[in-house]
Design brief:
The protein is α+β, with helices and mostly antiparallel strands and about 550 residues long. Helices cover about 25% and strands about 25% of the residues. It contains 15 helices and 24 strands. α1 packs parallel to α7 and α7 packs antiparallel against α8.
Length: about 550
């Protein structure tokens, strides 16, 4: 980038990156504490909610702490959970796991089936009423550092680069938005959070973060089969011993159901095709019967942080704090992180308010870190800290039995296992192609199951083709020279949007093609590539999926 580019600067008390539940909670709480504080929220989606994808069964504990009268204010929590079901699937049948022996924390009664995209849209309205400035379509492409190495702000709203990265004829340099503190609430594997974690070595002394790939469709089903408020989770088929993971089916209003499938990204077999596992799952008799006569109306995917308590990095560095999924606050067995995201936003806001009131800026918000590691978030995550490592090392049965026993013990403040380690990160877990058999997946039938490109069209994803590809290769030769011979180039399969292809033409060497226009911003490639050769960066503001009510 030419050195003579001058950016306009704007000063705020707090700059927040990401209009998800964590960022919006922080913004609202800051204004509740002091209406004179200047707070800005920058969102890369075309509107608030456009890039929000979550299950979601929401535990309202965070929202109730933030806005106690949320019901009176019209929060879109319209579907309380009425029925809670757990199944282990086989190829042709299922076994229901009774609710009684499950730890109390697994009970979903008192929670709500929601569209987190719509919850965030409502929260944005609450924030704006308090005077928070929210700018959608504003990707934050880089951090601004101060003279002492602290995070001073972000660059947002850079537009008009040519495909080679040089400024085009309509280039706009964007703005530098500077704050006394910067909150990164970008969601899972955010590019700025990744930079901060590396620069300040925030993962030192903590286990590597673990991830899952969550894929989700919204279905309109036969009203006769719809059971409002019903929550169903499954494990087992079709994944079997190939990978950890499971599914969710949530019945929300308007005769719709959320159908989702999660694959843990520490799988070893590079031939595994997570998207096709999801499509195959819908052909299970129990699921197929539910969806028969219905139609899919939306699709999306995103990564999920699964490392839990032992993988949370240090959450603060000079001038900056990591919130929500940027820090990895998901409770894996509950499949819930939105409540902890909201609580983290509240804690960060209160720490920043105290610091600013004391005349501080640009230092570490240690009070925020202390609140997370000793408060409700810690209590929630410590109880389940061994479920994921047990599942990863010993499989589903050990996770259900030993993990369940450990959760029960933790309910009473005890533990039978201590704190287990995760070991390898998900990229390192990938095995060599020669050591694993290829998997034969049925062809999608176009009724229950669909090919990737057809489904991507139901995510309303769009990227301007005349911008630089936001998916960067550290070494352009690696996909063909390393990943293809060693791992059968798994990017062809682990991407749920068909971004990566190996093109083999007669008489020519194979080549690696990146269809970045298809990207749904799930970040799986940044996580799972066995050579760690792919870096996900933010595209131009407003680009990407446009989820309606995910």
């Amino acid at each position: 980038m030419p050195q003579d580019i001058v950016r306009e600067q704007m000063e705020y008390d707090v700059v927040i990156v990401g209009a998800g539940p964590a960022g919006l909670s922080a913004a609202i709480r800051l204004k509740q504490l002091d209406s004179a504080l200047s707070v800005v929220v920058l969102e890369k989606g075309s509107e608030v909610g456009a890039h929000i994808l979550s299950g979601a069964v929401l535990d309202p504990v965070g929202l109730s702490k933030l806005i106690p009268d949320w019901q009176k204010r019209g929060a879109p929590l319209n579907t309380p959970v009425t029925s809670d079901n757990f199944y282990i699937l086989g190829p042709a049948g299922q076994i229901r796991i009774p609710n009684a022996p499950m730890p109390p924390l697994m009970n979903n009664h008192g929670n709500y089936i929601v569209s987190m995209a719509n919850v965030c849209r409502w929260m944005a309205g609450q924030a704006e009423e308090l005077g928070v400035e929210i700018f959608p379509g504003m990707s934050c492409s880089e951090l601004v550092y101060g003279e002492n190495g602290e995070v001073r702000g972000v660059v947002a709203g850079e537009f008009g680069k040519n495909p080679d990265g040089t400024p085009g004829p309509n280039y706009e340099p964007g703005m530098a938005l500077l704050g006394k503190y910067v909150f990164l609430s970008e969601g899972v594997r955010g590019s700025l959070a990744k930079e901060v974690i590396a620069k300040y070595d925030l993962s030192q002394g903590h286990e590597p973060q673990k991830y899952g790939l969550g894929m989700k469709e919204i279905w309109q089903i036969d009203p006769a089969k719809h059971k409002l408020g019903t929550v169903t989770h499954t494990m087992g088929w079709p994944l079997g011993s190939n990978a950890g993971g499971g599914s969710f089916i949530y019945h929300l209003e308007n005769n719709q159901v959320y159908v989702g499938f999660v694959v843990h990204l520490n799988y070893k077999n590079p031939h595994l095709y997570p998207y096709m596992e999801f499509q195959r799952f819908k052909h299970h008799p129990m699921v197929a019967e539910l969806l028969k006569g219905g139609k899919r109306v939306a699709y999306g995917a995103r990564a999920i942080s699964e490392g839990g308590w032992q993988s949370i990095p240090k959450m603060v560095a000079p001038g900056v704090a990591l919130l929500g999924c940027s820090a990895g606050l998901v409770n894996v067995p509950r499949i819930k992180g939105n409540h902890n995201a909201m609580l983290s936003g509240i804690d960060a806001a209160e720490a920043a308010y105290q610091a600013i009131s004391a005349g501080r800026q640009g230092d570490e918000l240690t009070a925020y870190e202390q609140s997370v590691r000793s408060g409700p978030i810690a209590s929630d995550l410590k109880k389940v800290r061994n479920v994921k490592p047990l599942w990863s090392k010993f499989g589903l049965l050990a996770s259900l039995t030993l993990g369940g026993a450990d959760m029960w013990a933790n309910t009473f403040g005890m533990t039978i296992l201590g704190t287990l380690k995760h070991g390898k990160n998900d990229a390192e877990s990938t095995g060599l192609a020669k050591d694993y058999a290829p998997i034969d997946y049925p062809k999608p039938d176009g009724v229950l199951s669909f090919d990737r490109l057809t489904n991507v069209a139901f995510s309303a994803t769009n990227h301007d083709e005349n911008q630089p590809a936001h998916l960067k290769l550290r070494d352009a030769s690696v996909p063909i020279s390393v990943n293809l011979p060693l791992y059968d180039e798994p990017a062809q399969r682990y991407c749920p949007a068909g971004v990566y292809e190996v093109i083999a033409e007669a008489g020519k060497e194979p080549r690696f093609q990146i269809n970045f226009q298809n990207c749904v911003h799930c970040k799986t490639c940044d996580i799972k590539d066995p050579s760690q050769n792919i870096t996900w960066t933010t595209p131009m503001g407003g680009d990407g999926p446009n989820y309606p009510n995910m």
